[in-house]
Design brief:
The complex is a heterodimer of chains A (about 300) and B (about 300). Chain A is α/β, with parallel strands linked by helices and about 300 residues long. In chain A, about 35% of the residues lie in helices and about 15% in strands. Chain A has a single domain, classed as Inosine-uridine Nucleoside N-ribohydrolase, Chain A, CATH 3.90.245.10. Chain A has a nine-stranded mixed sheet with strand order 3-2-1-4-5-6-9-7-8, with helices on both faces. In chain A, helix 1 packs parallel to helix 2, helix 1 packs parallel to helix 11 and helix 4 packs across helix 5. Chain B is of the alpha/beta class and about 300 residues long. The chains are: A alpha/beta (about 300), B alpha/beta (about 300).
């Protein structure tokens, strides 16, 4: 049995990641809560998308709405990538599930303090909620055994800029704070979530051939992402960074190479805003704070996804 | 009509004067005190805040402990040469009788503002961490707070902790950026004006000669503070009236002269903590802050002395 808490700026790939956790067949997964944060799309849209995804899977999970903008900077969105509703323009019906009253940050603090070291955290968006929670309750850093972060680009190949990955770029101050908070972190960077790790034409065909509500949903809500990825980054088919991170959180052996290093986040420069700088050789002689995933087993990651869609 | 204030403070010697001044002023009703790190460490300022409300029979006023460090910046080595290790001039004061409220300062601010819409004035005289966290926990407070009257910043004059930055702002520049950029009425009582309001020896001695609990405490705790001012500024036992000036503004804004400009923070590098007045809105288009640039200093000082010697 595994207990997890998901923090998400729910758009298309977040939705698939949530679906994976909700439908993981290998062991019982208890999702303690889902907190939403502004990122891919507006906070309200993220929340709506999270609720819709839970409803689609026929499950009940408490959803708490969190930060409506980054700590200090103006919001940056990813509509161009995820579509006007964050779900490929599918315009899914309004969910009937409702959010909880508590603010995401308070809900997270209360849940962790009531269950210290009982569940892991998986973050799929900007780290604003986590930074706020750690700021109000610094003791959380020692009450979470691991936080899996979809974010950053350890090999410095960014997406939103040459240097930075979107989630970290959106709220670099929050990321920097979280990275240096003492919270145990595993970083799943953008560089792992492209190329061969993408679902290619054949993969998409086989997903659609499963002919389930879930397989169809996975392709449908990502249709804008597929198109934009091809036009914008010139990459084939569908990148799924959040589901890859979720796969590693659910089955850590999917990450085949990792190391722990001093990692910090640039918040000063315009050129490298949000760059995750990994001191791989230890030249700064600072304490290692982040476990960086360097490689994943691509066939096993895809199988991890497929078994939740069948 | 009395003005309801939440006094956010890092006591601190001048905080002691300011809070006592506020509690002794019939124009103000202190509905809560929130503490923050700054002049001393977080746990220390919380206990001091509690002591100060108890000092003259105000133990019924709730005191909520807030942040121990800045939101983004790592924990600071706090200087103890101004206010002493204990924030009370190294006098090792007796423990308070009462207990802190069982809620974080930021949540206390949110709850109090929501319960008193349009009626609360926030008077922060330390780092702005709690205020910024409250804004992020409940963005609606921006429209429900009457005014924020803060001690901090240096718009048109040099800083005190660095050549550019004033200490409160410097200790959490990101929080300051959040507070100054929010859509609410902010008045900045910074070094622009507090360095013009010099508590001379005659007035200071008059306060210390009074026979009341506040004066009895001040007699013990000010030597360290006064000594620092004398060494650094050579103003012969006089002190700049920082925190009490913010309270004076809350009582009688007519004693002050203001200029209006949005305030932009430098949050990195050696200019960190500089409060830049963007008078022509070249960089930002958010709401202007009332920047105190002058005051009827004699009248402000007489008001303070009058209240503290009562």
């Amino acid at each position: 049995m595994k207990r997890i808490w998901i923090d998400t700026d729910t758009a298309s790939d977040d939705a698939v990641a949530i679906l994976m956790a909700l439908r993981w067949p290998d062991e019982e997964i208890i999702i303690e809560g889902i907190t939403t944060v502004s990122g891919n799309v507006s906070l309200e849209e993220c929340t709506r998308n999270a609720l819709y995804t839970i409803e689609l899977c026929g499950k009940q999970v408490p959803v708490y709405q969190g930060a409506g903008k980054p700590l200090v900077r103006e919001a940056v969105f990813g509509y161009f990538f995820h579509g006007p509703d964050g779900m490929g323009g599918m315009n899914y019906p309004s969910p009937k599930l409702e959010i909880e009253e508590n603010h995401a940050v308070n809900a997270l603090i209360d849940a962790i303090r009531a269950n210290p070291n009982e569940f892991i955290l998986v973050t799929l968006g900007p780290l604003t909620n986590i930074a706020l929670a750690l700021s109000i309750a610094p003791d959380l850093a020692e009450k979470i055994p691991m936080c899996y972060v979809m974010g950053g680009a350890a090999a410095t190949l960014g997406n939103i800029t040459p240097a930075a990955e979107f989630n970290i770029y959106v709220d670099p101050e929050a990321a920097k704070m979280v990275f240096h908070s003492g919270l145990p972190l595993t970083m799943v960077g953008w560089e792992l979530c492209r190329g061969e790790a993408n679902l290619d034409d054949e993969d998409i065909k086989s997903v659609l051939a499963m002919d389930t509500v879930y397989s169809k949903f996975t392709v449908d809500c990502n249709r804008q992402a597929i198109q934009t990825n091809r036009e914008w980054l010139g990459e084939p088919m569908l990148p799924l960074p959040d589901p890859i991170t979720m796969a590693i959180a659910l089955d850590s052996s999917i990450c085949t190479k990792k190391g722990k290093y001093y990692v910090t986040v640039d918040v000063e420069s315009e050129v490298t805003r949000g760059m995750t700088v990994v001191d791989e050789r230890g030249v700064l002689e600072k304490d290692a704070n982040v476990t960086v995933c360097w490689a994943i087993d691509v066939p096993r990651w895809k199988e991890a996804l497929y078994k939740t869609l069948r | 009509m009395t003005k309801k204030i939440i006094f956010d403070t890092d006591p601190g010697v001048d905080d002691t004067m300011a809070l006592t001044f506020a509690l002794r002023s019939p124009e103000l009703e202190v509905v809560g005190v929130t503490s923050v790190f700054g002049n001393a460490a977080g746990p220390v300022t919380a206990q001091n805040a509690l002591r100060l409300v108890e000092l003259e029979g105000n133990g019924h006023i709730p005191v909520a402990r807030g942040a121990d460090q800045a939101i983004v910046l790592p924990a600071l080595e706090l200087g103890t040469e101004v206010h002493g290790e204990d924030g009370m001039g190294n006098t090792d004061p007796a423990p308070p009788k009462g207990k802190l409220a069982d809620v974080h300062a930021a949540q206390f601010i949110v709850d109090t503002v929501l319960a008193n819409p349009g009626e609360i004035t926030l008077v922060p005289v330390g780092p702005l961490t709690n205020i910024a966290l409250a804004l992020r926990l409940e963005p609606k407070i921006a429209e429900l707070v009457d005014e924020v009257i803060l001690m901090g910043g240096a718009a048109y004059v040099p800083g005190n902790i660095t050549p550019l930055a004033e200490a409160n702002i410097y200790h959490d520049p990101h929080a300051a950026q959040m507070v100054f950029s929010a859509d609410w009425k902010v008045t900045m009582v910074g070094l622009d004006v507090t360095h013009q309001i010099v508590m001379d020896n005659a007035r200071f001695d008059k306060i210390l000669a009074a026979d009341n609990p506040a004066a009895n405490l001040l007699r013990k705790i000010v030597p360290c503070y006064r000594n620092f001012f004398d060494q650094v500024y050579g103003i012969g036992g006089a002190v700049y009236t920082h925190d009490p000036s913010a309270v004076a503004y809350a009582i009688d804004p007519g004693l002050f002269e203001v200029r209006q400009a949005p305030i932009v923070l430098e949050t990195e590098g050696r200019c960190m903590g500089k409060t830049i007045a963007d008078e022509e809105h070249r960089w930002v288009d958010y709401r202007s802050t009332n920047i105190c640039v002058g005051a009827q200093a004699e009248a402000v000082l007489d008001l303070i002395v009058g209240r503290l010697t009562k």
